[in-house]
Amino acid sequence: MLGLTSFITKNPPMLPKLNRRRAQFVLTKIDEILAWEQRKEAEKDTGFVELGRYLCEVRAGQYWRLENLKSFDEFLERRFPESRRKAYYLMSIHEHLPPQVRRELKQVGWAKGLELAKLARRRDGQEFDCATWLHKARVLPKEQFRREVEKELTGKETEPWEIVYFKLYKSQIPVIEQALETAGLMLGSDRSRGYCLEMICADFLAGANLDNGDPDVLLRALTSSVKFLSQAQRQAFLEFVNGQVQ
């Protein structure tokens, strides 16, 4: 049990020897790339391979101690205030892709590089067809390439998707979280929050269009709701509908 395990030891591991000169060089390089990235928004992806390499070195050598920080996570929080996720993505690219692939990644961008890293990580770097997948990364649009990778990893065709952003006030979040949690309990824990949100919206549209509403909207809402049912539930629903029609 994790909660019963003590991580305190009488002989903690020795800290790596801090190479101050090298640490200063790497930290300066990271700041230069981030500053350049802000100035050159249109070309921001071309330095991502180098940035991922330097970030991995900062973590391994604990270079963040040069700035009197307590952890690598605190270092990332300073350099990536909006989201540390991208930093970890770049590090994953450096860690999992072989050098011959990384040299070509500046042509395709870090987002596609991350998808390539998923393939390499899944196969532990073995039997990774670098040439074929690099070619696909060059010629395919980002979303289509992402679907190709997901198909390769799962063996299934995936539906096109996109991330939707909108602002929420903090006072709204508890209500929304409770609604998503309730929908998740109804639909099953394997359903994503996106599916749960669609179910909530479909239910709302179905209710809103019961009386003098747009029948096409009502039909779409009911169709979205039915697809969440199990095979047995769908059959029972169809039998009920057929009985009502007759």
The backbone outline, from C-alpha atoms, is elongated
What characterizes the major β-sheet? none
**Which residues form runs of ≥5 with pLDDT under 50?**
1-8
The helix tally amounts to 12
| Share in β-strands | under 5%
Distance between the termini: 59 Å
**SSE arrangement, N to C:** HHHHHHHHHHHH
Q: Helix content range of the residues, please?
A: 55-70%
The total beta strand count reads 0
Average pLDDT across residues?
77
CA-based gyration radius: 25 Å
Tally of individual domains: 2
Q: Structural class, from helix and strand content?
A: mainly alpha
Describe the structure.
- The chain is mainly α.
- It folds into two domains: 20-154, no CATH class; 173-236, no CATH class.
- 62% of the residues lie in helices and 0% in strands.
- The protein contains twelve helices and no strands.
- The longest helix is centred in the N-terminal third of the chain and has 20 residues, at 20-39.
- It is elongated.
- The protein starts with 19 loop residues before the first helix and ends with a helix.
List keywords for this structure.
246 residues; mainly alpha; 2 domains; 0% strand
Q: Quick gist of this model?
A:
The chain is built from twelve helices and no strands. With 246 residues, it is mainly alpha-helical. The protein has two domains: 20-154, no CATH class; 173-236, no CATH class.
Write the layout of secondary structure elements.
Blueprint: H1 20-39, H2 48-61, H3 72-79, H4 85-96, H5 99-102, H6 110-122, H7 130-139, H8 142-154, H9 173-187, H10 193-208, H11 215-226, H12 231-245
Helix pairs in contact: 1-2, 2-4, 4-6, 6-8, 9-10, 10-11
